[in-house]
Amino acid sequence: MKHQDRTLRIIGGNWRGRKITFPQHDGIRPTGDRVRETLFNWLMHDIRGADCLDLFAGSGVLSIEALSRGANHVTLIESNAAASSHISQNLSLLNADPNRFDNIKSNAMNWLGQCDTRFDLIFIDPPFGSNMLPAVLEQLAVRQLARKFVYLETPVALETSDLPNQWNLYRQKQTGSVHYSLCITG
Questions:
Q1: Contact (Cβ atoms closer than 8 angstroms) between residue 166 and residue 184
Q2: Domains along the chain?
Q3: Using N-to-C axis directions, what is the helix angle for 33-42 and 61-68, rounded to 10°?
Q4: 22 touches 28 (CB < 8 A)
Q5: Under 8 Å between Cβ of 60 and 42
Q6: What are residue 52's DSSP bridge partners?
Q7: Going residue by residue through the chain (186 aa), what tens digit of pLDDT does each one get?
C-alpha cells in the first residue's frame, strides 16, 4: 500500500480538512469518509462534551473526528504498538490537548475487564474475522460502561437479538462490505 493510500481527511470540526496517516497493517481498516460523515451527522447534537471510548482504535480516526467536533475526552485502546504510536504522533501533529485524550496500548478485552469508567459514546470496530464482538458487548453491558450510544462496524447487519438486553438499534446502514450501526443503550 502506498503512503498516500494511508491518509485520512478529518471531515468536520476544528481540524476539518486536516489529514492524518496510519501505518500499513492488515488489521487496520479505517472508517471511510462517507461512513464517518453519516455517523457524525447522526451524533451532531450529542458529540459536543461527550466522553468517548474507542476500542480497537486502529487509525484513531473516529476519536480524532470526535475531538475535532468538540468531544470532552476520548480514550483510545489499540493493541498494535505501531498503530498506537501512530495515533500519538497524529494527535501531537494536530496539537491536541493531552488532557482530552488517553491513548492506551492494550488488548481491548483485558482493558475492559479492568475498566470502571462510563462513557457517553463507545466506538467498536473489531477485526472482522475475530468473533470478539459478542464478548465485548457482554462486557460493556455487564459492567454498564455505555451511558448512551454504542457505534459498531460489522461484516454483517446486526439484529436486535445480537445486542444486550435494553439496547436498541437506533440507526443502521451499509457501505460496501461494512455494516455500521448506532445503538442506544439506555
A1: no
A2: 3-184 (3.40.50.150)
A3: 50
A4: yes
A5: no
A6: 74, 121
A7: 344 458 888 999 999 999 887 777 666 676 778 888 999 999 999 999 999 999 999 889 999 999 999 999 999 999 999 999 999 999 999 999 999 999 999 999 999 999 999 999 999 988 877 888 999 999 999 999 999 999 999 988 999 999 999 999 999 999 988 899 999 997
Place of cell 497524529: 90
Q: Is the pTM of this model over 0.90?
A: yes
Packing angle, helices 61-68 and 81-93, rounded to 10: 20
Spatial separation of the C-alpha atoms in residues 53 and 119, rounded to whole Å? 6
Total residues found in the chain within this entry: 186
Sequence letter at residue 4: Q
